[in-house]
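On clarity, I found the account of how folds are encoded harder to follow than it need be. Since the whole study asks how a given chain folds, the encoding of that fold should be made plain. For illustration, here is how one protein appears when written out as sequence plus C-alpha cells:

:::
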Amino acid sequence: MTPEEFEQERRKSAKALRQVVDGARGVDVPRSSEAVLGPAEEVRRADEGREPRESPPAEWNPPAPPDLGPVNQSWPAGGVQSPGRIAALVDSSRAKNQEAQVRFNSDQVQLDNALVSWTAAHFAATHEHYDEVVSGMQKRMDDIDTRHRELERELVRHVHEMARRIDVVLGEGEKGRVSHEAALRSVRERLRVLEEKLG
C-alpha cells in the first residue's frame, strides 16, 4: 500500500468515525415536557361546583323591654293636702289614696307580668341567636374539613404524578446512556477492526 492510499484510507476511516460519533450523539433538540411526560393534569379547585355559602346568621335582635311609664306615673299615691278641715280632707284623701294605690298595684302587676314575659322572650331570642351562630360555625367547620380532605387528595395525586414524571425522566436518561454506551462500543469495535486492517 502506497503512502497516498494509506492517507486516503485514514481520511475515509476518520470520516466514518465522525459520522458514527455524530449519529450516536444525536441532534440536541430540546423536547417539550408534554412529549416526554404526556399532558399535565388540570388542577381542580376545591370550591368548583360548590353552592355559595349561606348568608351569616341574623343580627342579634332582642325584644324591647316593657314600658315603665304607667307605673312611674301612678307612683305618687297621695295628692298634695291643703291645711284646714281635717276631717273632710282625711276622708277625701283616704279615698284618693286608695284609688291611686289600686291603680299603682294594677300597673305594678302588669309591669311584673310584662317583665316576666320580656325575660322569657329575651332568653328565647338569646338561645335562638346562639343556635344560629353555632350552626353557622359548624357548617363552616364542615366546609373546612371537606376542603382539607380535597386538598389532601389533590396533594397525593400531585405526589404520584411527580413520582411518575421523575421515573419517566430517569428512564429517558437511562435510555440515552445505554444508547450512547452501545454507540461507543460500536465505535471501539470499528476502531479495533480498522487498526487491525491498518496494522
Residues 79-84 have pLDDT under 50 and may be disordered.
